[in-house]
Design a protein that fits this description.
alpha+beta; ten-stranded mixed beta sheet; single chain; two-stranded parallel ribbon; 14 strands
Length: about 270
Amino acid sequence: MIDLLKDIPPEKALAHYTTMPTALEGILRTHSIRFRPITAANDPRESRRRWSGISWEGANSKFESTVLSEFERAQTEYVKMFCFSKSDPNIHPLFTQAGLCYALPNMWAHYGDRHKGVCLLFDESKIVEMIPPGKLMAAESISYDDFFLENQSIGSFGNFDQIDAEFGGNVSEFVKAHIQKEFQPDLLKKDNGWRGEQEFRALIYDRDPDTREHLDLGYGESLVGIVLGIDFSEVYIPLIKEYTSSQVRLWRLAWSESDGTYKTKIIT
């Protein structure tokens, strides 16, 4: 961040906007972040969309019903995500706050409870490290385009014969590999209407039956700072300090009438 996290390059800082209750009780107290299935996304293009147009080939049709069942569960349970915002790489040097991941007006309005919430700042490299290698699918910035103006059909081909030949009969690994190859790119694209979120998305593949609805992963030392919204209640600051280490820096966002920009005030 240009004026906050001097020890972390701007391009390596990730921001997660949320409400005060979720930040305190759901994240800071438990020292974890919650990955949810894509069906929990707030964009119907993702939450209600199903990967269709799939054609299966091969003579080994004994796997058909198992593959289709596994594929459906992958769409509704296994593929999970956690979303951040990332600073605009093309920040204008004269407007150092504009485009920074902690100072996005629409994010404060929609996710930060209209400035009564918080923005949690993470180190990207440490976030990626804390995800078990066997679960990590991707961790990268979303690309934006006018997708609603394009053909929305998504098609792919799968070959049942691959299950034995390449995956030793392991249907689960076959489906996972197929999704990563054919559909993962679509999970990293959004319509231009969402561009202001400057989203960075972490995708995981989790088949554990005990975590079908969500998976909580400890964030370890990846949390490096917290920015409080302009209207965040000071009553909760002691609790934030209790739940975080002394290494986590704390600021409050402020509005400057003189030049019409956000400013940050150091608390700790």
